[in-house]
Amino acid sequence: MAESHTVLIIEDNEDLRHIYATTLSMAGFRVRQAGDGLTALQYLDSEPPPDLIVLDLFLPHVSGFLVHQDIAARAELQHVPVLVVTAATPEQTRHLKVTCLLRKPVLPNDLVTAARRCMADSAS
After folding, report:
1. pTM here?
2. Which of 48-57, 62-71, 88-97 is predicted with the least confidence, judged by mean pLDDT?
3. What is the DSSP letter of 52?
């Protein structure tokens, strides 16, 4: 069940970040937030690993592509599923190796379903 899981939302659009945070919080997740790639990397350097990362790819300061590379390179984060939520084209994301990917716009229920699915898929 999602009640014990922490999600790090990395999204620069404040309105979307708020919607994602509210939706996942109401679904029982503990939510942490970062509004850019640099803040996300600082969080990952200083806090215990989250159970799921929701990642936008087009971020200021450090792109989501670079954040994803950093996550993949860290042994302590390799088990953490990454749910990419992006407006990027299939061509732009075809080389990404992520647990799950949603294309914007995303309905709140679809976000919750994808978050739970991603965590379940990574656990199996």
Report:
1. 0.94
2. 88-97
3. E
Tell me which residue has tokens 């990952």.
Answer: 44
Q: Residues 6 or more apart from 107 whose CB is under 8 A from it?
A: none
What would be the CATH architecture of the domain defined by 2-123?
3-Layer(aba) Sandwich (3.40)
Round to whole Å and give the CA distance between 46 and 43: 5
Residue type present at position 10:
I
Torsion angle of C-alpha atoms 60, 65, 69, 71, degrees rounded to 10: 60
Domain boundaries, the chain: 2-123
CA 52 to CA 124: how far, in whole Å? 15
Amino acid (one-letter) located at 60: P
